[in-house]
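We emphasize that the prediction below concerns an isolated chain of 131 residues; any contacts that depend on oligomerization or on bound cofactors are therefore not represented. The input was used exactly as deposited, without trimming of termini.
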Amino acid sequence: MKFITDAKFPDRDWLRTYYYLRFAVSVIWVALAFTVAKAMPPLAAVMLVAYPAWDALANFIDANRSGGLARNKIQMLNFVVSVVTAVAVAATLPHGMHAVLQIFGVWAVLSGLFQLLTGVRRWSPMARSGP
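Result of the prediction step, given as a token string:
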């Protein structure tokens, strides 16, 4: 496979920065979840709403850099599912953590699948650019 040049894929640097940022936010979120939030249930509640909201924002920004949500159907689905999840988690918090974690868990699986599909969609043209 040829080295992927900036001329062929001008968004390569943006994507690298974007995915490093997403990774950093994930690591910080997990670290806080297993340390501070564990002892502070109100913070845990905020974090459980904030993470899908962050995911929605990240998908929205990335999709807009790549032609918009209408052009990026998988990211549009991820955006919508993440917004709905943030609202559903917030609405479910008074009913107990079991229900909240069920919603959050389903969202985590769906969001991960959507991100994987987005990555595969992006990787395919780069892989085909080889010799």
